Input
Amino acid sequence: SSGINAEYGVNKSDFTPEAVGKVSVAAKSLCMWVRAMEVYGRVYRVIEPKRKKLSEATSQLREKQNSLQEARDKLQEVTERMETLKKQYDEKLRMKEELRKSSELTQLRLERAGKLLSGLAGEKIRWEESATNIETNIGFLVGDCLVAAAFTSYMGPFLSDYRENLVQKVWLPDIRKLAIPCNPEFTVSAFLAKPTDVRDWNIRGLPSDNFSTENGIIVTRGLRWPLMIDPQCQAIKWIKNMEKGKLKTIDLQQHDFLRTLENSIQFGTPVLLQNVQETLDPSLAPVLDKAVIKQGGRLLIRLGDKEIDYNPDFKFYITTRLSNPHYTPEIATKTTIVNFAVKEVGLEAQLLGIVVRKERPDLEEQKDNLVLNIAAGKRKLVELEDEILRLLNAAEGSLLDDEVLVETLQTSREALLSSFLSTLRETE
Output
């Protein structure tokens, strides 16, 4: 280019296509070619080194990119490997946590199994015997229920000797002749009363003899309101203690006894009508008949000239101090007549209590406390046993997973041991 510029004077002002074209058209083209070659040479000298550098840079870039890709591939491989290891690590941690929980649960189950074994080991034989007795007694239910229903319906007015003769020498033999299954050792007290209830009655003043227990069963289980023949006031004492704090006492000589009875019927409080004679006030007929009607979801009873709400919790007791009253069949069918005349055994126990209370009041007080403590302990025993059996029956899955059952069993054992130890210490 420099040679062309020197030889032909490309940069001269008169060496332009316009100037040369004025002289020769052919020379104009040659001028344009020469100028173009000069420009090309000049540009080539500048661009060519850059092209080489570009090629070298491109080659280096390609190498670097290849190296970068290899590094990225290795990074991806390491990342994937790290993710795999992290998943394995998390899985091992989860397995470790599960094993820890399983170990704790197994240890807990082991402890509960020990508690169950220690708590129920002594109950196996007794519960097996109880289950056998229950299965046996189920077969006697028809005859037992028949005798028990007849007893509560008809035996109330009679003394114990007549009751026993009628049941043991008349009813049970007739039932056996008819091939009706019945317990050969049937007693009304064992069939209809719980021992805990009987102890509560005794604590509240009911004599502990079998005759008085039968009377308590008839009073509490009869469908009709009880009319108690009570010359020694045994029944009144028992009823007042049993319904203590809420019992309303009325007398037919009171002018407002119907108002008291009306309020008690509405609010469901027990009422004791005492000192009746051989006739009853006709206004009591709806109460004795339990003439309750249901109207719009309400229970109503007509007392006097108006209807009042009837509370199902209402209880009605009637007592007379007549030793040998004669009641009409109408009264006998409307009430359950129960003879509470005190027997010799009951009088002996009362007399002994009076003598001890006079001579050694401390012994009498100690005896009363022991009776109460023993009764409370036995009642607690029955309640806890019922609760344990309920939990065992309702348990789902493994018993070792039922924390409430195990804790209840442990608590019951501790409570019973504490109660019996306390009773033993007091007895000593």
Notes: Residues 25-120 form the longest helix (96 residues). The chain is about 70% helix and 10% strand. The longest strand covers residues 298-303. Strands lie at 226-229, 248-251, 271-274, 292-295, 298-303, 306-309, 316-320, 336-339.
